[in-house]
Amino acid sequence: MTPPCFLLRRQTQRAGQFCISPLRWPITSAHRHTATTTTAATTPAPDSLLGRQYCPLPDILSPTNAHLLTLSLAPYLAPTQPPPISIRTSGELNPGFYLAYFPPLFLHERDVMPDGSDATQSPGPARDWPRRMWAGGEVYFGSGEGEGGALMIGEGAVCEESVVRVDRKGAKSGEKVFVWFERRYFGCLVGGEGYMALEEGRLLANGGRKPAVREKRCLVFMKHKEGDGTKVMKVETKVVKPPNPPDFSLTFTPTPTLLLRFSALTFNAHKIHFDPVYCAQVENHRAPLCHGPLSQVFLLELLRLNLPLPQGQGGKKYRVRKFEYRNLAPMYVGEKYTICGRLKREGGDVQFGEEVGMEVGRGRVYELWAETPKGGLGVKATAAVEEVGA
Asked: Cα separation of 248 and 304, whole Å?
């Protein structure tokens, strides 16, 4: 007898439509680290997260999600343009738009931390690790053809997730735990009987393929920040200035509406993004914080909109293949930020894979960053772009 699984099946009578049989994958007690269910005797060490594999997340890449994300970003990326009125129903997802899919399908409300975050990702109970931030990550996009394929609007896809690295830094009272999650996104295979099944927590139809997108995201978990709970603590941070002027940039002020929309699209209940009272009285922030992945999407879209257009038939085209970023300073709602980009290198060999000498091709390298109101670096990123179709 096979364990609970999700099944994606192409309907022969209705071409192009997928359905998901709603079978439940249970979350075991090992995933729950809430203060009410964990005792000191059973509290797992942060290192116990290493190697954890989560249930695969199937999804249908609905045109709706991509459109809603486009609609949410439009006032900031194209402030003088009318809002988009058409919905793209086919084609490849924009880089970074995969973040609007693959929500935590199995996360019951009892497995949510007091701050609204996912308890199954925490290195321990809420009393030990009450605060978390998105520290950064790296993303590798496939070539869009061959065995890697691509994530296509309207098609089925699946995400596999596991913990690949855990680092502990700092003294006991100020200790931080950096947890690296690897996510592998596969486009749906359709062939033979026309189905793909997920059983025993593995993608049966994977067959050792390369993923269309491979992402490593780093979350940092922290101890409680000391404060009196009634006013925002003034924490002075070093302002790191960008080393070079940008080739292109946009300045905007993120609003509570933007953050709430992005939280809804990603099924993210973390209170630091939408509850100003919680931010001030519990985590001592002056305002809700912009999402780490929202900054990622903004920078990738800024880059996409500023890549050279093909010149004539058979002209050069460019494809984002690699994106690495670090979140250096909080970005607050209601404050002006500038997202910037600069061409660092053009021509010659560019590395698109993670390892040296892996997936090398002709392309460009861009520096991308977000500037805080004081002109310091809030986010710092590098993107490798492949030259194709020349």
From this structure: 12
